[in-house]
Amino acid sequence: MQFHDVRFPASLSFGSSGGPERRTDVVTLANGFEERNTPWEHSRRRYDAGLSLRSMDDIDKVLAFFEARRGRMHGFRWKDWSDFKTGVPSREVSYEDEVIAQGDEETKTYQLVKVYRSGEQTYARPITKPVAGTVRVGIAGIEQFEGVHYEVDTSTGIITFEHAPNEGMDVTAGFEFDVPVRFDTDQIVSSASTFQAGEVPAVPVVELRV
């Protein structure tokens, strides 16, 4: 996987547009009813950083970042300001934000996830790029401590406990995270005259499966 563990400047992703994309195949039957299926288990996010550019200095930063990634060649981290942490957006991360698993006295490694809820339906999104220093973990309502009770791999989103949690105990976590993405274009077209006239270049990025 050609991935650079570096974040697109957060000040430039602020104000960008984008969000999750799903793929659904819809077949309308002869009787008017529909059959709907999806080949995707997980959604995929797309963004356009062009809307957040406010000056020629911003364009200079984006061009440098684009060239350093060799265009679409290398992936990178992206902060989605509308969805970058667990729990309620208005409060700080808590180790009780998400129940990510239950202990079985054998398993020591767990994947971080963020759970989206609406009514009785839920969707568990695997998080592979947590932000270092933000991950908080608990077992059965008691906070654990990184470097003492567990370790976090910020390149995969996997936490590893020193000792496997006891059977039936809730493993909980809260954290901030980035989205693994790449540029979705091989060319960025910009000019000083059009930018000063209010036109901004399109800078599309798309989420990677990692």
Structure notes:
This protein has 3 helices and 17 strands. The chain is globular, with a radius of gyration of 20 Å. The protein is mainly beta.
In short:
This protein is 10% helix and 36% strand. With 210 residues, the chain is mainly beta.
Labels describing this entry:
210 residues; mainly beta; six-stranded mixed sheet; four-stranded antiparallel sheet; 3 helices; 36% strand
Task: Kindly state the percentage of residues in helix.
Answer: 10-25%
Strand content: 35-45%
Shape: globular
Write down the secondary-structure element order.
Answer: EHEEEEHEEEEEEEEEEEHE
Largest sheet: 6 strands, mixed
Radius of gyration: 20 Å
Number of helices: 3
How many DSSP-defined strands? Answer: 17
Low-pLDDT stretches are: none
Mean pLDDT, as a whole number? 92
Strand order of the biggest β-sheet: 1-6-16-17-5-2
- Our measurement of the CA-to-CA distance between the termini, rounded to an integer number of angstroms, reads 8 Å
What would you call the structural class? mainly beta
